[in-house]
Specification:
By secondary structure, this protein is an alpha+beta fold. 32% of the residues lie in helices and 24% in strands.
Amino acid sequence: MIGIKTPEEIKIMGEGGKILAYVLFELFKNIKPGVSELEIDRLAEELILKKGAKPGFKKVRGYKNSICVSTNDVVVHGVPKNYKFKVGDVVGIDCGVFYKGFHTDMAETLRVSTINNQHL
C-alpha cells in the first residue's frame, strides 16, 4: 500500500526536486564537444553531494554511477563511458537524487552544439 505523504514529506520531496533541477541544469551547461560521459557523471556526483544529498542511482544494487547517459542510438539507461561528445550528438541524461529519505528522478535530452546546448 502507498502511504499518503505529510505536508513535511512533500516539502522535503520538493527540496530534493530543486536540488535535482539544479544538478541537471549544471550538467547540461557542461555537455560540450570533447567532454566525456564519465566526466559528466563525476560532476553530477560532486554537485549532488555539495547540496547535501546523495546520488540516488548509486542506491541501485550493482550500479556504480550517479547518472544514466543515453547518447545517440542508446534508448534509455545507458551506462556512462569514456565516449566524448561531438557536435550533433543527441544526449539524454537521467539523474536521481536521494534527499532526507526520498528519491527524486528526472531526465532530459539535448543536442550537443558549439554555440549553446539546444534542448530538444
